[in-house]
Amino acid sequence: MTDARKTLFLTGGSTGIGAACVRKFVAMGWQVSFMDSNAEAGRSLADELGVLFMEGNTRSRKDLEAAVRATQERYGCPDSVIANAGIHRCNTLLDISDEELDLMIDTNIKGTVNTLRAVLPCMVERGRGNVVINASDQCFVGKPNSFGYGLTKGALGQITKSLAIDLGPKGIRVNAVCAGTIRTPLTETLFQSFADITHGGDTSAYWKAEAGLYPLGRVGEAHEVAELMYFLASDAASFMTGGLYLVDGGLTAG
Description:
The chain is an alpha/beta fold. It has eight helices and nine strands. Strands 3-2-1-4-5-6-9 form a seven-stranded parallel beta sheet, with helices on both faces. Helix 5 links the parallel strand 5 and strand 6 (172-179). The radius of gyration is 18 Å and the shape is globular. The model has no long low-confidence stretch (mean pLDDT 95).
């Protein structure tokens, strides 16, 4: 069964989890539009799948408003929005710079808020809609050298719960997906930066060590996260809101 004629707007859709979501929703018959600052990868994916792509940065409300306006002009008000765009940096409270802290807050927290500010008005006016936020397993656990990321992703967990309460009476569901380590370009870049310093550029030791942390013995794949995001966005999850749903290979079970 497909969801033909339903519309998704997504941020950070050019690569990784976002691109896997674009592919999944298209395969299920949805009309998809997405925004990303990676214009080359975004245009390539959009051309391949016949979806709408807009270049932009979630730190800019102007970019988001333009992207949502373009979505509405082509498809109407989105049925679902996935606030996916985010960044990762390694730091602790003792070494994070003011500039890096501001960048992480502006991207991961404010970027999500900006996304929802742009999309929610038409959903509220229509009286129905659905929000999925890409949070993290760090809503549940702390990790070393991940102060800024954990801070911002933990905030997304609270945003999810607050919005679910405020928006439920307006017919809008809000849920978050909390993934463990997923093999994406973002993670590849992070591990490569470590390997360049310690292993002559070979990332295999880092991937092996990371996989060893998980009861399933491996890290996740982007399409596995996209499956959960699709489910939460679909009518199959019609009585689910305010939830933080793990897809973490059992990491937080111990």
